[in-house]
Amino acid sequence: MEHKGFTLWFTGLPSSGKSTLADDLAPKLRKMGLNVERLDGDVVRKTLTRDLGFSKEDRQKNLERVTFVAKMLSRNGVAVLAAFVSPYNDIRHWMRAEHETGNFILVYVKTPVEVCMERDPRGNYKKALAGKIKDFTGVDDPFEEPDDADIVVDTVANDVEECNRQIIRWLSEKGWL
User: Fold this and answer.
1) 164 lies in a domain?
2) Distance between CA atoms of 3 and 72, rounded to whole angstroms?
3) Interatomic CA distance for residues 95 and 162, integer angstroms
4) Which of 8, 47, 159, 173 has the most neighbouring CB atoms within 10 Å?
5) Domain annotation covers residue 1
6) CATH at 153
7) Looking at the domain assignment, is residue 120 inside a domain?
């Protein structure tokens, strides 16, 4: 059976659990017979967008490039799992509009900033609070809660397995699986 491609875009604060969820979900979707590609902010920053910094303009260019790649893959039958902070509603609205086939699914990984600070494996929140990192989302640059999320998962109330069960259930109910 041939599956329709889609972009499952995970947004949330740094250290909210976006990559963890996407990494856990990818093999589950592959077992269901989907072609899956993972696009992760940290990996993309080392390759596709290594020429960009973290100003608002550069972050937007980063997301524009990734959106282009995700759109191309998804319209060719790939389930794209993209994990990016993508902090502003306007760019997320633009990303959705770019997926002209209606196959953009926004997953909001809802995690309080205090929890993200506790989880922070690289110490970026501490560096940002100390003034060593400027324009860090959640510290001195805002994260706008999505006003159009298709799926909201709470990583404090639910573990990775339950969050991904909720995502799979939604995908199945909407006919993507």
Assistant:
1) yes
2) 15
3) 27
4) 8
5) no
6) 3.40.50.300
7) yes
Look at the chain and report how many structural domains it folds into: 1
Q: Rounded CA gap, 62 and 52, in Å?
A: 7
Annotation says 86 is catalytic: yes
**Contacts with 8 (C-beta within 8 Å, 6 or more apart), sequence order:** 22, 25, 79, 80, 81, 82, 105, 107, 167, 171
What's residue 2's pLDDT?
65
Q: What is the pLDDT of residues 138-153, one digit of tens each?
A: 888 889 999 999 999 9
Of 15, 16, 74, 86, the active-site residue reads: 86
Q: Are 123 and 175 in contact (CB under 8 A)?
A: no
Q: Closest by alpha carbon to 8, among 103, 146, 77?
A: 103
d(CA 167, CA 161): 10
The CA R_g of the chain, rounded to the nearest whole Å, is 16
Structural domain span for residue 55: 6-173
Nearest to 87 by CA among 13, 10, 9: 13
Distances (CA, A) of 109 to 14, 68, 115, 146, 166: 10, 22, 12, 10, 12
The pTM for the full model equals 0.92
List pLDDT tens digits, range 121-134: 888 888 888 888 88
Instruction: Identify whether 92 is part of a domain.
Output: yes
